Amino acid sequence: MDEGQINSVGALADPTRRRAYELVVEAGRPVGRDEVARELGVGRTLAAFHLDRLVEARLLEAVFARLTDRTGPGAGRPAKLYRRSDAQVEVTLPPRSYVEVGSVLAEAIERAGADLALQRVAFERGRAASSQTMDNALRERGYEPATTPEGDICLRNCPFHTLAEEFPPLICGMNLALLTGLAEGAGWPVTPRMRPEKGRCCVVLERQG
Predict the structure, then answer these.
(1) I want to staple 202 with a disulfide (CB 3.0 to 4.6 A). Which of 58, 61, 165, 196 is the partner?
(2) What topology is assigned to 3-84 in CATH?
(3) Residue ranges per domain, the chain?
(4) CA 148, CA 40: separation in Å to the nearest integer?
(5) What's the burial of 107, exposed, middle or buried (CB within 10 Å: 0-12/13-18/19+)?
(6) DSSP for residue 153
């Protein structure tokens, strides 16, 4: 485990900072220090301190944007907002290369043209494991579900992000099959659909009816 990973984990040791991180993640959009301060019940300066520490630890990233449609003189400076970083932090002691072995296996499957076999296994695994409620099952697997204005369920995090970046068709197809198995096995009132969008899982769970 390198120093950067240690710093990232250590940044969440403070309860207030950890809650600040959770608030940004749960929002699913860039948020400002005023909003975080209000939710935490702390001052703006303290909220900004914790948010900036999370940026330093690579858990969040800062972006600048105007909060109103005003432009030109008098519009003010763009606000500093925070969103979750794309950086992936994994901690095991001693270090283990699960991502590397996953990459090797994914490449082997791709070379062998065994995509359908992978999807079949993923579907069967999902169907066999789906005894939980939808929200619990998705959260335990790291999907971070959220309801859209249309009533569908978007998944704000991809648990397979690193491999999906390297092998998009293979891993996204497996992911869709897994979620389809989970939904069918437990009778969730949704239909998993492939709907890629930057910054979140490639699958959306469309409400039935």
Answers:
(1) 196
(2) Arc Repressor Mutant, subunit A (1.10.10)
(3) 3-84, 114-207
(4) 25
(5) middle
(6) E
